[in-house]
Specification:
The complex is a heterodimer.
Chain A lengths: L1 E6 L1 E3 L21 E3 L1 H17 L2 E8 L4 H9 L4 E6 L7 H19 L4 E5 L10 H9 L3 E5 L1 E5 L2 E8 L2 E8 L2 E5 L11 H9 L2 E3 L9 E7 L9 E5 L4 H11 L3
Parallel strand pairs in A: 1-4, 1-6, 4-5, 5-12, 6-11, 7-11
Antiparallel strand pairs in A: 2-3, 8-9, 9-10
Helix pairs in contact in A: 2-5, 3-4
Chain B lengths: L28 E5 L2 E2 L2 E2 L1 H10 L4 E7 L7 H6 L2 E8 L8 H15 L3 E5 L2 H14 L3 E9 L5 E6 L4 E7 L4 E5 L16 E6 L13 E4 L11 E5 L9 H10 L3 E4 L1 H5 L20 E5 L5 H7 L4 E6 L5 H5 L2 E4 L2 H16 L1
Parallel strand pairs in B: 1-4, 1-6, 4-5, 5-11, 6-10, 7-10, 13-14, 13-15, 15-16, 16-17
Antiparallel strand pairs in B: 2-3, 7-8, 8-9
Helix pairs in contact in B: 3-4, 5-9
Classes of the chains: A alpha/beta, B alpha/beta.
Chain lengths: 254, 345
């Protein structure tokens, strides 16, 4: 089984996100970088599938040269190949990103054979566009569902579960297909010593990304207005219970 | 492709009675894509209709015959016309089939704006339509400025940051962030004209239609529960969640936990609410032993009332909450449950 996982390098923010003076980026001077959380779970899902079914799992990212760090991390937790689509002109918009990724996938498939399964995160942690995976799936003519919180492959059918307001929905997509997964689908493993060594030696395949800018243009980033509320302290310790229940009664939830 | 109803509109994939066709020289047409689950309206769609009223004339789109009965309700929220897509494939939700219906409706109507609520389904369907139409899509907007070259403000980092962006396209595809506006019926009560259309969809679109369900036994979920009891690192152990569960059950609510909790192995990872993008808005949110990291705060800030329970008076969640109890959640939470039971007997 051949699996491809598409990930994004994002900063790991703390209690407060600061913006650069020109308002174009997050000030990441003091921040570490990571794989966007949903995608970290996609990497884990790919590792588990390859353990069960055999085959290989490739990780791909579009981003700055430094994103090699995230590719190597993914190799350290079970990916067997890594592909970088290097950019050096800041963030790419979703249409351009999707075009570059689907073109790169076609190139990889023409030499290495079709990917049975392509995984994305539900949405990227930083830009939250909710669309790159969907656009790539459409460009490749493959079925896609987003939001997967359980995934298994039986007889070349992907069984996907996702949450709905009334419970869980299941989908059965024939391979090859594209699935977006959500945090909570699994608990990503930590790298082993063997994995770390493998990641240092791994070859990172570079493909020049192609794509014209799309129609969603970032103008400026801003921090939301701080909501300053006066906190009413209802009491200290268990003695505060009566005051809490008074509030619940006043709100009308009792 | 949706099949034309008559030979007079054979170039179009979707066909309408002339009476319901938009006036090309008139007010901007806003196509609102209505979210429903086998006929049960998602309240999020009423937020989308409310937001759309300030932008132009609303034409709503419902997908599947099961939603036909929603027309009156959509009219009360400002829809002038409800386009009703009928096809045997549309008995249940499928992102590709729904996205294709939206794309074909957009081609037929050429609306100025296509708008849905930024729920999981809303974002998925508009993304599918955007891919098919090769148009840009701005997800989770909180405001629109149609006069300024169509600038939007949209959520990044689940709302921890905002982005001003311009959407350069003839037809603007957007979702409005869930809970960004309160749903309000239109002041002028109108009735929506139903405009059913039949069509055929390519059989390949059936590949991603819901194939089965596990219905939840209790009727509440994180998005519908009136009360959410959240537990963080301060809960300390798997057993520590017992009292939280009891309090939630007493109030007909649900428990959620942070990623720190599942990473510690205290709760199954399936109970985890992600740090990215999940937004809740219950009547009451109990934040138990949660410090209030920014991603958690933006996910919970739409709650109507927040009661923080924390030993640290200076914790982020305590200073931002409307109400707080300073103390050990292991003592405070059971005391609240006991007090509720006492008053009920």
């Amino acid at each position: 089984m051949r699996v491809l996982v598409c990930v994004k390098r994002v900063p790991a923010p703390g209690a407060r996100i600061n913006i650069t003076a020109d308002g174009q980026e997050i000030d990441s001077a003091h921040l570490a970088f990571t794989i966007s959380p949903h995608e970290e779970c996609a990497v884990e899902a790919a590792a588990q599938l390859v353990e069960q079914h055999g085959g290989e799992a490739t990780v791909l990212t579009l981003g700055p040269a430094e994103a090699e760090e995230q590719l190597r991390y993914a190799v350290s937790v079970g990916m067997t190949g890594a592909v970088l689509l290097p950019t050096d002109d800041g963030e790419w918009d979703p249409q351009r990103t999707a075009h570059a990724i689907s073109s790169a996938i076609k190139e990889l498939e023409s030499s290495g054979g079709e990917f049975d399964l392509i995984l994305f995160g539900n949405e990227s942690a930083d830009s939250g566009g909710f669309q790159v995976g969907v656009r790539v799936a459409y460009a490749l003519g493959r079925p896609m569902v987003n939001g997967g919180k359980a995934l298994s492959i039986v007889d070349r059918v992907a069984h996907v579960e996702r949450e709905s307001d009334s419970g869980r929905e299941t989908y059965e997509l024939p391979l090859p297909c594209v699935i977006g997964v959500k945090e909570g689908i699994n608990l990503p493993r930590y790298p082993t010593m063997k994995g770390r060594l493998a990641s240092k030696k791994a070859d990172v395949n570079s493909i020049v990304p192609v794509g014209q800018p799309g129609g969603l243009w970032k103008i400026v980033l801003q921090r939301p207005a701080e909501t300053k509320s006066e906190t009413i302290i209802l009491g200290t310790g268990p003695d505060a219970a009566a005051a809490v229940v008074d509030v619940l009664e006043a709100i009308g939830v009792l | 492709m949706l099949r034309p109803r008559s030979s007079t509109c054979s170039k179009q994939s979707v066909c309408y009675d002339p009476a319901t066709k938009p006036n090309p020289g008139g007010v901007a047409v806003i196509l609102v894509v209505v979210e429903h689950d086998r006929g049960a309206l998602s309240p999020a769609s009423l937020e989308a209709l409310t937001a759309a009223r300030s932008l132009g004339d609303i034409e709503a789109l419902t997908i599947g015959e099961s939603a036909d009965h929603l027309a009156d309700q959509l009219g009360a929220y400002g829809a002038l016309t409800v386009h009703q897509a009928h096809n045997e494939m549309l008995g249940d939700y499928g992102p590709e089939a729904w996205g294709e219906v939206v794309a074909q409706t957009v081609r037929a109507l050429s609306p100025a704006i296509v708008l849905a609520c930024g729920t999981d389904r809303g974002n998925e369907v508009i993304a599918q339509a955007a891919a098919r139409l090769d148009l840009p899509f701005a997800a989770n907007c909180v405001s629109f400025r149609p006069d300024a070259g169509f600038e939007v403000t949209r959520l990044r980092w689940g709302g921890s940051l905002l982005e001003n962006a311009s959407l350069a396209a003839e037809i603007k595809l957007v979702t409005i962030a869930h809970h960004a506006v309160d749903a309000e019926p239109a002041t002028v009560q109108g009735s929506a004209t139903p405009a059913p259309f039949a069509g055929s969809l390519d059989s390949s679109l059936a590949r991603s239609i819901v194939s089965g369900r596990v219905e939840r036994q209790a009727g509440v979920t994180l998005s519908t529960a009136p009360v959410v009891v959240g537990g963080g690192r301060g809960v300390g152990s798997p057993e520590g969640f017992g009292p939280l569960q009891e309090l939630a059950a007493e109030l007909g609510g649900v428990v959620w936990c942070s990623r720190a909790v599942t990473n510690s192995g205290w709760r199954n990872h399936t109970d985890q609410v992600g740090q990215t993008g999940t937004r809740i808005a219950p009547d009451v949110y109990f934040a138990c032993g949660i410090s209030g990291a920014i991603q958690h705060w933006v996910g919970a800030m739409a709650s109507k009332n927040i009661i923080a329970i924390n030993t640290d008076r200076e914790a982020n969640m305590v200073t931002k909450a409307g109400y707080a109890v300073i103390g050990d959640l292991h003592q405070v939470v059971p005391a609240i449950t006991a007090e509720i039971r006492r008053r009920r007997t």
